Amino acid sequence: MDRSTADATLAGLELVPFAESAVAQAKELERMLLDNDIPVMLGKAAAKACCGGGCGCGAKVQVLVREADAPRISQLLQADWLEAVRREGTVNEGLVPLRTPAEHELICPACQFVGILVDGMCQDCGLVLE
Predict the structure, then answer these.
(1) Is residue 130 part of a domain?
(2) In contact, 106 and 129? CB cutoff 8 Å
(3) What is the rounded CA–CA span in Å between residue 52 and residue 15?
(4) Does residue 127 lie in a domain region?
(5) Among 10, 21, 67, 99, which one is least packed by beta carbons within 10 Å?
(6) Burial code of 46-60, b = ≥16 C-beta within 10 A, e = fewer?
(7) In terms of pLDDT, which residue wins out, 117 or 111?
(8) Which pLDDT band holds residue 127 (cuts at 50, 70, 90)?
(9) pLDDT for res 94
């Protein structure tokens, strides 16, 4: 899917932030999703995205998707992560526990933690997902 098709598909729809990250990482995720025919757009990050303390953490953007696409995106990211682990040989087959998230749980796209968000963040790595 190309950018213009994604824009047309998402026009006027309610979108949810799937992830918030630095621009380069958000663009990489955007490319991956478009390559998998999942419409996505990048948007302005929430006001709390940067600490504002001059630490140099850089600009952040949100990756916006249809809520219904979130489980598929999580599966794609999980498969991508597992392939990277297998390719690197850092984990033997079967040692990475996988489970389907329960109704109110998410799979963190950064660390693959499965659980509920705490204050909008992954309990394991602290990635802001809400």
Answers:
(1) no
(2) yes
(3) 26
(4) no
(5) 99
(6) eeebeeeeeeeeeeb
(7) 117
(8) confident
(9) 54
pTM (2 decimals)? Answer: 0.64
Give the SS3 label for residue 28: helix
- Domain carrying residue 22: 3-115
- Supply the DSSP symbol for 40: -
38 within 8 A of 65, measured Cβ to Cβ: yes
Mean pLDDT, rounded, of the chain: 83
Kindly compute the dihedral angle of the four CA atoms of residues 81, 50, 17, 79, in this order, to the nearest 10 degrees. Answer: 0
Distance CA 56, CA 49 (A): 12
Give how many domains the chain has, as a whole number: 1
17: in domain: yes
Q: How far apart are the first and last CA of the chain?
A: 26
Kindly state whether residue 128 falls inside one of the protein's structural domains.
no
The helix, strand and coil proportions of the chain, stated in percent and rounded to the nearest 5, come to: 35, 20, 45
For residues 69 and 113, what is the distance between their CA atoms, to the nearest angstrom?
Answer: 19
